[in-house]
Amino acid sequence: MKVTSIIIAFILLIIVWLYLDFHLGRRKHLRIVRNQATPILYGNFDIFPHGKELFADYFNEIKHARLHIHILFYIVKNDHFSQEFYSLLKTKAKEGVEVRLLVDRLGSHKVNKKIANELRTAGVQLAFSNRIKLPYLFYSMQVRNHRKISIIDGKIGYLGGFNIGKEYIDQDPKLSPWRDYHLKITGESVPFLQAEFLIDWKEYASEAIMDDSTYILKQPKGHASHQFVPTEAGLLEKKYLELIQHADQTIMIGTPYFIPSRQLLKGLLDALKRGVSITIVVPYTTDHMLVQEASYRYLRSLLQAGAQVYQYKKGFYHAKSIVIDDKICDIGTANFDQRSLFLNKEINCYFHDPVFVERFKDVLQKDILDSRPLTLTDLNKPNLFRSFKEVIAGAVSLFL
Fold first, then answer.
1. Sorting pLDDT into bands at 50, 70 and 90, what band is 124?
2. E strand intervals along the chain
């Protein structure tokens, strides 16, 4: 009896500690968060929905770099494709190009000491973002740097959903082909992307950069009007809610994980009530435990209210996008889930250019054609195991 009481007391102590750690850490984070949205800018863009084409272009641009290469990824692995990436960076560093690589401490946990030492010995400057640290260990474990941006010579930028690993070039049998959206950017907005990288680099790297002007090079204007919006600690929820509330006709959402906040779910249901058509594209195949089950209660509510939901079947759907009224298009690193809304550092690109929006809609329509409709009948079929998983997923949805 005494042992049981001790165990129960210990478990309760852990629960209290986790609660206090998370909420005090979040409160501190909210005090220091800053809104860094850029003004409306003009640039030129290519969209890459397939990893093989993206990385052929990406590696080619890196090979031709002459001044500096600045890269931030959430995930970099230790497979043959990642090794090819490392080799390319080491080669450029040995040529005298300044190479900085910033990776998330947990997302890129496979970047081990051996890899880190080899990169640094070759001249690559490597840093890990969002380390787990005191006093809020649990909270700092949850806040990840989910941004994926690259800037080459201050003239070419990349931003989107792809990371570095074999699955992203269709070499994981379960998840192939991998469907995602990644942007290649030129024009006057590239220096703003560069500035965002330098903010993160200064925060996490031991190296002090004294003169940003060396890297932030003025570029000519492009054609597509857009805006970069970095977010963290709840800023993304406000941005998405603003988009949804201003929709008059259509909302189209593409996301691998659909776990909205209460505010966003209410915003979507209110939009349906005022006659807005809502289409949501999610994966048929999942890559993480419980994320699909976590989405079902939200999708049920929206289907019942008249939304259309499609499950992408031609591989794994990891793309992140929102289109509002054919007027605004969002492509970036953020998922439509509570982790991206409240915990992760993200960066999205919001397009206001009607030509680009129409161009992107063609890509999204192709994905819908490669999907199957999800119905209330599908979700309401009796399934005890799925129902159990939905209960568990609902309890931990913020951390999925």
1. very high
2. 41-50, 68-73, 98-104, 125-129, 149-152, 156-160, 178-187, 224-231, 250-254, 277-283, 308-312, 316-317, 321-324, 328-332, 346-351, 371-374
Decide if 148 is catalytic: yes
CB-based contacts of 89, cutoff 8 Å, min separation 6: 62, 69, 71, 99, 101, 119, 122, 124
Question: What one-character-per-residue DSSP string does 336-348 give?
Answer: SBHHHHHTSBEEE
The residue from 77, 90, 92, 146 that is catalytic is 146
Asked about 318 being catalytic, the answer comes back as: yes
Residues 128 and 248 placed together within one structural domain of the fold: no
Annotated catalytic residue within 21, 104, 153, 200:
153
- Tell me how many domains the chain contains: 3
To 10 degrees, what angle do helices 113-122 and 80-94 make? Answer: 30
| Residues 158 and 76 both lie in one domain | yes
Q: How far apart are CA 350 and CA 329, in angstroms?
A: 6
Are 302 and 349 members of one domain? yes
102 and 240, same domain (yes or no): no
pTM attached to this predicted model: 0.94
- Residues 209-263 have pLDDT tens digits of 877 878 888 889 988 999 999 999 889 999 999 999 999 999 999 999 999 999 9
Q: Which residue in 320, 337, 345, 353 is the catalytic one?
A: 320
For residue 390, what are the domain limits?
231-399
Q: Which domain-ending residue is among 227, 262, 281?
A: 227
Residues 188 and 262 in one domain: no
- Are 47 and 140 within one domain? yes
Q: What is the pLDDT of residues 176-206, one digit of tens each?
A: 999 999 999 999 999 999 999 999 999 898 7
Distance from C-alpha of 136 to C-alpha of 146, rounded to nearest angstrom: 20
Least-confidence region, from 28-37, 202-211, 315-324, 336-345: 202-211
Q: Which of 270, 325, 370, 378 is catalytic?
A: 325
DSSP tally for the chain: helices H, then strands E: 13, 16
Which of residues 194, 227, 260 is at a domain's end?
227
Same domain, 74 and 7: no
Instruction: Find the catalytic residue in 184, 318, 330, 353.
Output: 318
- Identity of the amino acid at 223: H
Bridge partners of 186, per DSSP, are 44
- Does the annotation mark 153 as catalytic? yes
pLDDT score, position 1: 62
State yes or no: is 320 an active-site residue: yes
